[in-house]
Target: Cobalt transport protein
Amino acid sequence: MLQPTPLVIVTAVLVVVTFAVEAARMTRMLRRMRVLLLAILLVYGWSTPGLYLWSGGFSPTREGLWLGFLQAVRLVGVLTSLQWLLRSLTREAMFGGIYLLAAPLTLLGVNRQRWALRLTLTMDFAERLLAERQDWRALWQQISQPLDAVSLQPVAVTLQIRPLSAGQRALLLLLLALIVLTLLFFHQIFP
Model:
């Protein structure tokens, strides 16, 4: 929702504050994301029409590089916010939050307890796997090998469901109203 200038400022402040609090984790996250961020910049730069930066067949466009930069800033902002969320919540609290937010999925016939548990365990496994220092070949080899009985040890997950406060319910209703208004707006523009 932020326009480009406030988006860049808010993301820069968020990144600086996160570096001050969690420098090692933030450095690790940005190091892992550098190829994706560069790919976003290159794809936008060379595939978006606009003014070429130099004459020739393989020149990026100014608009493409700007749009790629904005997408990379958005991604860094989302990932930095995710770092704050992962830093502030325990696994059990995250499981309880996912369980509560998945309540509308029961209308579609989805077992939200199973879905939230799988997502939580996947995130926990990915965090433990990525915390180990290893190169991408060792990581790929570890992922591609079949699981053995040692790695299939049970993990206890407790469900901590806290009732939503009045402010949290109001925020959820506001978000739902904004989603409905957005869908109505797009339906009027693109009938």
The radius of gyration is 21 Å. Helices lie at 4-21, 23-47, 62-88, 91-101, 112-131, 136-144, 166-189.
